[in-house]
């Protein structure tokens, strides 16, 4: 059986993409809505503490409880998280339609392989219903490693009990694809749907 590993942001969700020209920011109205400067949030949160949260080594709400007051936000951190999750949920419906079409016409399994912390992972899987499209979700905070750590990919290989040659990663970050290929997987650097619609790995399954 063949397995396709799909990144979330930049592939399944139109959001943060490795190519700045293709990014869709969820922070456009953050200053107006919550009084938080987007640049300050990136500098004081996403470029500092977030890496530990992604790995499951720090709690999102606890860290935000310290960071947000420094950014002049006096509300409950849960309010900020709810805002973030709602805004950063711009699903790539064209990609999801393609996945569902492939699943209907082949025996290929599709999984999420993503750098997420626990709350957003739950929101994606249950809140946005991605569990209805994908077979499994592999995410950093649950595994304890993040892409492009080779341990992340080895965990996925071991969990699926499948040869890497029967797996393909679809990801917008070339460095993630490079590591997947180093293990013997196929890899596609995703920019738009033209990168995947005629991929031989899937055509051979049809």
Largest sheet: 5 strands, parallel
CATH topology of the largest domain: Rossmann fold
Name the CATH class of the largest domain. Answer: Alpha Beta
CATH architecture descriptor text of the largest domain? 3-Layer(aba) Sandwich
User: Average pLDDT across residues?
Assistant: 94
Order of helices and strands: EHHHHHHEHEHHEHEH
Q: What is the tally of beta strands?
A: 5
Proportion of helical residues: 40-55%
Portion in strands:
5-15%
Low-confidence region ranges: none
Describe this structure in words.
- The structure is a single chain.
- The chain is an alpha/beta fold and 206 residues long.
- It folds into two domains: 3-18 and 90-203, HAD superfamily/HAD-like (Rossmann fold), CATH 3.40.50; 27-87, no CATH class.
- It has eleven helices and five strands.
- The protein has helices at 30-34, 38-46, 50-54, 60-70, 77-87, 93-105, 118-127, 140-143, 150-160, 174-182, 200-203; strands spanning 3-6, 109-114, 136-139, 167-171, 186-189.
- A five-stranded parallel β-sheet has the order 3-2-1-4-5, with helices on both faces.
- Strand 2 (109-114), helix 7 and strand 3 (136-139) form a beta-alpha-beta unit.
- It is globular, with a radius of gyration of 17 Å.
- The protein starts with a strand and ends with a helix.
Quick recap:
The protein is of the alpha/beta class.
Keywords:
206 residues; 2 domains; alpha/beta; Rossmann fold; 5-stranded parallel β-sheet; single chain
Helix-strand layout with pairing:
Elements lengths: L2 E4 L23 H5 L3 H9 L3 H5 L5 H11 L6 H11 L5 H13 L3 E6 L3 H10 L8 E4 H4 L6 H11 L6 E5 L2 H9 L3 E4 L10 H4 L3
Parallel strand pairs: 1-2, 1-4, 2-3, 4-5
């Amino acid at each position: 059986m063949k397995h396709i590993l799909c990144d979330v942001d930049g592939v399944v969700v139109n959001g943060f993409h490795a190519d700045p020209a293709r990014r869709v920011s969820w922070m456009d109205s953050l200053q107006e809505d919550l009084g938080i400067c987007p640049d300050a949030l990136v500098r004081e949160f996403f470029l500092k503490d977030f890496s530990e949260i992604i790995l499951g080594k720090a709690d999102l709400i606890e860290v935000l409880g310290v960071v947000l007051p420094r950014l002049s936000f006096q509300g409950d951190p849960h309010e900020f998280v709810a805002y973030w999750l709602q805004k950063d949920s711009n699903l790539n419906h064209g990609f999801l339609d393609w996945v569902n079409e492939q699943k209907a016409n082949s025996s290929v399994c599709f999984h999420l392989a993503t750098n997420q912390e626990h709350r957003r992972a739950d929101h994606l899987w249950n809140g946005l219903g991605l569990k209805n499209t994908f077979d499994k979700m592999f995410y950093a905070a649950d595994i304890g490693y993040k892409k492009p750590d080779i341990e992340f990919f080895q965990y996925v290989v071991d969990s699926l009990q499948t040869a890497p040659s029967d797996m393909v990663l679809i990801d917008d970050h070339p460095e993630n694809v490079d590591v997947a290929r180093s293990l013997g997987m196929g890899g596609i650097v995703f920019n738009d749907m033209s990168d995947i619609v005629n991929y031989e790995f899937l055509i051979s399954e049809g």
